[in-house]
Structures are given as C-alpha cells and as structure tokens.
Amino acid sequence: xxxxxxxxxxxxxxxxxxxxxxxxxxxxxxGVTNFAHGALYMSGAYLAYSLSDRFNFxxxxxxxxxxxxxxxxxxxxxxxxxxxxxxxxxxxxxxFGLAMITERLVIVIWGERTLSVDPPAALAGTTxxxxxxxxxxxxxxxxxxxxxxxxxxxxxxxxxxxxHIRAASQDIETAGIMGIDVDRVSLIVVSLGAALAGLAGTLxxxxxxxxxxxxxxxxxxxLIVVVVGGIGSIGGAMLAGMGLGxxxxxxxxxxxxxxxxxxxxxxxxVLLWRPQGLAxxxxx
Amino acid sequence: xxxxxIPDAAPAxxxxxxxxxxxxxxxxxxxxxxxxxxLGLAVPFVVKDxxxxxxxxxxxxxxxxxxxxxxLARHLGLISLGHTAFFGGxxxxxxxxxxxxxxxxxxxxxxxxVVGTLLALLMGVxxxxxxxxxxxxxxxxxxxxxxxxxxQTSFRPITGAHDGLLINMPFDSTxxxxxxxxxxxxxxFWPIVWVSLMVCTLGLWLVGRSRFGIVLEGIRENEExxxxxxYNTFRPxxxxxxxxxxxxxxxxxxxxxxxxxxxxxxxGFTRAGDSLIAVLIGGTASVAGPLxxxxxxxxxxxxxxxxxxxxxxxxxALIAVLIFMPGGxxxxxxxxxxxVRR
Amino acid sequence: MTIFEGKGLTVRYGAIAAxxxxxxxxxxxxxxGVIGPNGAGKSTFIDALSGRRRPSxxxxxxxxxxxxxxxxxxxxxxxxxRSFQRxxxxxxxxxxxxxxxxxxxxxEPDLDEIVATLGLDEVADxxxxxxxxxxxxxxxxxxxxxxxxxxxxxxxxxxxxxxxESVKMLEHVRALCTERDVAAxxxxxxxxxxxxxxxxxxxxxxxxxxxxxxxxxxxxxxxxVRAYLGSAA
Lengths: 284, 342, 233
Prior knowledge:
By secondary structure, chain A is mainly α. Helices cover about 75% and strands about 5% of the residues of chain A. Chain A has 11 helices and 2 strands. Chain A has a two-stranded antiparallel ribbon with strand order 1-2. Chain C is globular. Chain C has 9 helices and 10 strands.
C-alpha cells in the first residue's frame, strides 16, 4: 500500500461524503430516504458530460448543482410537500419510482454506452505529493469536497437558517409550532441535497466512467453510509462516508473480493454493536 | 425524542385492520381457496399457446416471491426490498447443488429451500428490530451484498459471476415424476407451481388468522405495548420473516429447475424493486393482491415493453398507484365493494 | 410491607438531570400518588420504574430483589404492569381481541370481570381506533390490569378526560386497588383527584422529591404550597 492508494480512498470517501450528507439532510427533515438520490447523482454526472463537452468543465461545476437544485425544488413542491401527511414509506417508494424513470430518461438522452469526461486542463496531469505522483484532478475532488463539507457544517452551526434546519430535523412539528417556517426550511434542504448530489456527480464524472447503472451502484453504498453514520445525522454521514470510502479502497489493494463486502460488513457490525448508528438517532 | 403524528410505520392501506376472525369465515375462505386451486389446474387445458402458458408459469413463480413480501407487509407493516436474496439465493443453491454435488432434482430443491430459509434467518436477525424506512434500507442493502458476492470474479467457478449459472440438469433425475424436459414444458410444470403457490397463499392466510397472527398484528400496531404486556416481540417478527423468506425460497428453487439457467440479475437491484412494485400494485391488503399484481406485471412485461421503456412505465405505475390508489388494485376493489354494500 | 421500591433513582439526559435521587416504596392495597408541576420529572420517573428507561443510577426492586436491569417484558411477567399517558392500545383490533391476546400471555382467570368493571361490555366487539377517547383510556387501563399484577404503575390515566370521566376513572382505580390488594402508583396531573383518591402522596419538583406523606401532611407542607399548590389553587 502506498500514498496513492490512501489518496484514492480519500477521494472516494470525499464523493461519498458529499452525496450522503445530502441524503442524511433530507432524511433528517422529511423522515424519507430519498431513493432517487443515486439517480440525481447520475443525472449530475451526465449533465456535466454534456456541459463540459459543449463549454468546459468549470461551467459544468457551476451549472450542474444549480440545475439539480431546481430539480430538488420540483421534487419538494410536487412530491414531498403535497404528500407530507402520507406515510414515509409511501414517499420513499415514490422516490424509488422516480429513480426508475430517471434511469430510463438518461438512457433515452445519452444512450447506454459508457461515457467518459476529461478532467479540466488546469487539473490534468499529476502532482507530486507524499512521494508519489498523484493525479491532480483527484486532489481537486478532495479539496472541493472538504471545503464543501466544512462550509456546510459551519453554515448549519452559525446561521439562522442552519439553526432552523437543525431544529426542524430534531422535531419538525415542534419546530413548526415554535414559528419556524417548515416549508421554507424543507425547500432549502431538499434543493440543497439535490444540488450536493449534482456536485458529487460532476466531481465524479472525470474520475469514474459514466453508465446508466452508476446511480444504483452508488445508492446502495450511500444508504449504508447513512445507516452506519446514524440515520439523519449529517456529521455521522460525513464521517462514515469518508471512513468507508478509505477503508474500501485500501482493502481493494489487498483483496478485491473482501473489499466488495466491506461496506456490508461495516453495516452488519454497526447494526449489532450500535443499532442507532455511530452518531444520532435510532434506526426506526 | 421526537414524537411525530405521521408514524414511520406502514400506512393503513398497506397493513389494514383485520376483519373479525370467525371460524365459519375461515372455512368459507378455505373452501373458496381450494376451489380456486382446482380451477387453476385447468389453465393448461384452456391456454393452448406455449408463450401464454410460459407467462402463466413465470407469473406463478414470481408470485411466490410476492406472497412472501406481502405477508410481511400485511401482518407486520414491514416493506421488504430484500426478498430477492432468498428467491435468488435458493435458485443459485439449486444450480450449485446440481452442478457441483450432483444432487437429484428433488434433493436440490429441498436443499435450496433450506439455504434460502437460513439466509432469511440470518438477515432477519439483523433487520427485524428495525421498522419502516430503516427496514426498507437494511433489507435492500443486505440483499445487494449477496448480489455483489455472487458477481465476484473469484467465485466464478461456483456462481458463474457475470456470466450467470447454467444448470446441468441431470437427465436421469425426476422431480415429482417430471423429467427435466417435462419441467421445462410450462403446461406440464404448471400444476406443481400452481399448487405450491396456492398452498403457500392459503397457509399464510391461515397463519394470519391464527393466534400467532394476532400477536403479529399486536406488534404491528403497538410494539412497545406488546412488550409491556409481557410479549417477546423479537421472536414472532423473526419467525414471520423466516416464514415469508421460506415461501420466496420455494419460488426461487422451482424457478431454477424450470429455467435451468440463473442470470445474476435475479439478485439485482432492479429485480428487488420489481418484485416489491408488483406486490404494491396488486395491493397487500388482500391475499389476492400479490397474485393479481404479479400477474399484471408479467403480462405488462411481455406486452408493453415497446422501445425498452418498460422500466419507466413501471416507475410511473408505482408512483400513480401510491399517490392515487394506495392499497393497490385489490385495495381499490375492496373500497368500491364496501361503498356499494352500504 | 413494601413490595416494590425505587431507591435513589437518577435519570440524566446528557448534561441535564431529569430526575435526581428519588425514592418511592409501594405497598399492597395502597394507592400512592405522584404529583408535580409540568417538567417535574413525573413521566421520566414512571419510565425508570417500569423499565422503559434505564436510570443513570439508583435501583428498582421487587420483593427485595434488584430488578433495575430487567426488561419491561420480564417485569410484566413478574407482576409489574403499567399504563401509558399517550393512550397505548392496539388500534386495528377489536377491544375483545386485544384484551384476550394480553390475557393469554398473563393468565387472567376472569377477563369478564375486568371488562365489566371498566364498563367495556358494550364496545367489546368494536375496533379500538373507532371508539371514544375516554373509552380507549379504559382499554389502556384494562390492558394493564389483566393477569392480576401485584404492582400497577399508572401514567396519568385521566389525561384528556372530562371532569366526570376523570372522577369515574379514579374511582375505578381506587376500587381495583383495594379489592385486588394491588400496590398502585398513580402519576397524575389532576391534583384534587389525587388528594381524593390516594393514601400516600409524593410531590416532585424539578426532578426532586419536595414532600411525601399523607394527603393532609402534603397539603400543609410549606414547600409544596410554594412550589405548586400556590400557583394552582
């Protein structure tokens, strides 16, 4: 094992961190697991492909999260808000249906073949770090994700909206009684969660290959990350995402078949040892 | 601790209030079930073309998976995305048993049901403490773990990895008097599948009406009060989970000997979703729900798959049913029936 | 003769102590009232005694044996039952089905008597979620009384009931306790009802016991008057 492999692990962990914090936020607020999160991530990656093809990667990284935020607004206004009095399970299954539809739309628009995106010229090539030449773009992923995570945490801790989000995640009804505009908070959280999924997709596009299955494959891992981190806990999801990504990548070097089961093994161990996850609420 | 008025439990449409359990109605229901069973045996004599008959057979096999899923939804309010693990696990067990250990077909099917049931026991220990969303996520994650394992290149000699597993059907072996060639003839294999399906359906229906069924309903309605009333709530949930897993396993084992080939898709994410969606569209409130839903699903798969958009239509159908017709088709029929009677 | 006892019970939620060093001793045939203003720790107290929440320190004992770490299920099986403040019944079942279900587990010889005493005959075949709220409270109480428990912990049985329903509910509790020689603890918001019904009263404020004794003693206790009755009366 060398530094490059550790960095690969951190890069994967960074993507998982961005993706799972969005899922955890939506879960915390609406009590709904957004099964369409993998599909949002995939749409982000494909949009980034088209935008960096037509313009360049930097346009993509600005516009894709915005586009996904708009999709998040639609998701909130068309499904989450009108159906908030339905059971969480029904809503969760609706997002499952949305994921199925999105997958097909992606195939209709971009086709079924595997696509790839080139990293932007400024980040092409390698950088010498810790004694290895490491792809600069992957370092970029790590930096962007860490900055993203740090600003998200600071925003939640230090702003009024952040306070409202945390209060509503604790207990959405009491928060409503206390005068917090729950609809507004929810709109922000769902669109932000979708934007983060878009950002993760964009960041991943030059790193992984794009195929219509990439969403599902990632969704499962992200679900595990969120359960391991403690359902609804944003900090827990970030830590678990980084941890799992790193451990899995490092295990791959040592034994690929073992690496595949690492997330599931982590899930089982955490469930047996701490059913409420590493941080946060009980699995309910 | 947050207390929400929207419980994270299954909605009433998925897990309904039970009608009073009068022994007379049990007999009537049983009689009706047996009549349907006998009628169903006539299908191969009515349906003459092989393609339609093979659809019936496929629906019957998939319905065993659906009946298992619906049982958990109805009596415990638990929605599983993981029963493909038992269906697929059993199917793989048939292949492995026949190919590697040269088991007879009967032994392989028995072995597969045991393996599938043990898988359900293992998964159940980990997941039945969770409820609602947590249960949904955990069953999905753990079933996908099995799928990932089956796809591992290092397991290629056993599972065939991405190539799938071709079962070398032993030509001198029979299953309930059927040769491998007979089993692959939908008309000849149908009676076995149909009887299995109806026996499982009626059996689970009786379980639901038994004292054990009442305990399950108590746990579904108010798990905490059950504990404070002196009941162990873990064991009955585990037992129900294992029972539903066993039914799905039987489906998988019969599927395997009929298909003689197992595609890794059988354990996959899409199959997990499809199996649940078929059940939800049919409705879980009545025993007929999973049968109707799976039948419709298989029919749509064969006839509506133009341009490869089936998956999208399925998603749309799922959303439409959940929003406009919670309780599925059979739930809607029940509602109309009640309105008309009033 | 004490059969059920809580000693030095303390429950902390993170840094906040909801309950500090509270003692209680229950005797057969005696109704022990626990009152206190909102946030006094009444619910936490009954949760700690009934096994719903494990106390941070202190012990719960039954017949002198430490049962602090026993499960709710074990306690019920050994004669300690409780009711719930938020009505806790089995909504989809008929009243009869659920009472019979609980009776099967707890060897109740005479379910009809409980049903009759609580006036549940008329609704026995109705689905529980469809009957009146006050009647649901009675079903909740009935579930706790099945199997002749020796200790019954009642969490605000009158919560949400109108005045005369409340009076009736407390009369039931009193009568059942005396007739069946049950050691009862009654956590209640309705102060006058508690003074009327109970033999012994413990007053909690901010998680601590500020007074304990007969209704007459408690009523005149200056701390109680200051902390609680002063504002309520």
